Amino acid sequence: MLFKQQAWLRQKLLVLGSLAIGSLLYLVARVGSLDRLQPLCPIEGRFGAHGQAEFPLRALQFKRGLLHEFRKGNASKEHVRLHDLVQQLPKAIIIGVRKGGTRALLEMLNLHPAVVKASQEIHFFDNDENYAKGIEWYRKKMPFSYPQQITIEKSPAYFITEEVPERIYRMNSSIKLLIIVREPTTRAISDYTQVLEGKERKNKTYYKFEKLAIDPNTCEVNTKYKAVRTSIYTKHLERWLKYFPIEQFHIVDGDRLIAEPLPELQLVEKFLNLPPRISQYNLYFNATRGFYCLRFNIIFNKCLAGSKGRIHPEVDPSVVTKLRKFFHPFNQKFYQITGRTLNWP
């Protein structure tokens, strides 16, 4: 009898112990989550000197939970009304450039609790068919957010498409525009590598980079090749400056964002008039991937897709040298216009 009582008691203690451990783990996760979701400015209680309203704690608490349900389409109109959620037009757009790091920049900015990102490229301003659907169609493509949050989208084709600057200007002449750039020759090779991978997946042949980038008749750089044209940043920027002052642009160094992301993100926070919230805690280097991954809180981490960081094919060094020499005067003009000098050869 005594033996049975002892066995029963041990079983009870085991159950209670399991419940205690489970509760402790929940509290640890909860504390980690709430630590991530503290008010943006716990001292001032405001965004800063720009007079925006206090950011409610409940907005931060629901950002990774309730907003996720809206993205999946699992929330009702009543939830929208109760939580004051809206679909806002972007207050900032990452307009380019292709293979400059636009996806990495968008995902990293999403670490900030005041930022909500559109998960897909909308291609509203660069696609005539989409643009004809009107601004309300565009708004409905945006994620649900709180009024105090900033919605950001990215479509890198915007930077090089002629009609886009005027179209964005008509929507919002004071919008903030982000351009992330990489060393032009590296960017062109990365552009080629992505197209090459797509061709190989379909068992199609493709020219070598050297044959596309260099005109065989003149042995000079082939400016008709799109990957080369995209890397002439100053030519595209000059078209945007017909509509927007340079103060509305911020240049992000895509090469530095890969190697040392935090300083670049802090510059973007300042440009967007956001209180500093992204810290080294949110970024950790993944040695296996060779890239920084994102830490939102103690239980939620995220790395970029495996397609990022493709291995580039070997390119004839003489072609690399020719391209860098070609891009050099355009780079110098780009530095002069933007006021930012980058460490490009």
UniProtKB/TrEMBL annotation:
Subcellular localization(s) per the UniProt record: Golgi apparatus membrane
Disulphides: 293-303
List of residues binding 3'-phosphoadenylyl sulfate: 99-103, 182, 190, 292, 308-312
Membrane protein topology class: Single-pass type II membrane protein
Residue span(s) of domain Sulfotransferase: 90-334
Keywords for the protein's UniProt record, in alphabetical order: Disulfide bond, Glycoprotein, Golgi apparatus, Membrane, Signal-anchor, Transferase, Transmembrane, Transmembrane helix
Enzyme Commission designation: 2.8.2.-
GO cellular component: Golgi membrane
UniProt xrefs under Pfam families: Sulfotransfer_1
Reactions the enzyme catalyzes: alpha-D-glucosaminyl-[heparan sulfate](n) + 3'-phosphoadenylyl sulfate = 3-sulfo-alpha-D-glucosaminyl-[heparan sulfate](n) + adenosine 3',5'-bisphosphate + H(+)
Active site: 99 (for sulfotransferase activity)
UniProt GO molecular function: [heparan sulfate]-glucosamine 3-sulfotransferase activity
GO terms of biological process kind: heparan sulfate proteoglycan biosynthetic process; negative regulation of coagulation; regulation of viral entry into host cell
Family as reported in the entry's similarity comment: Belongs to the sulfotransferase 1 family.
Protein name: Sulfotransferase
Gene name in the database record: HS3ST5
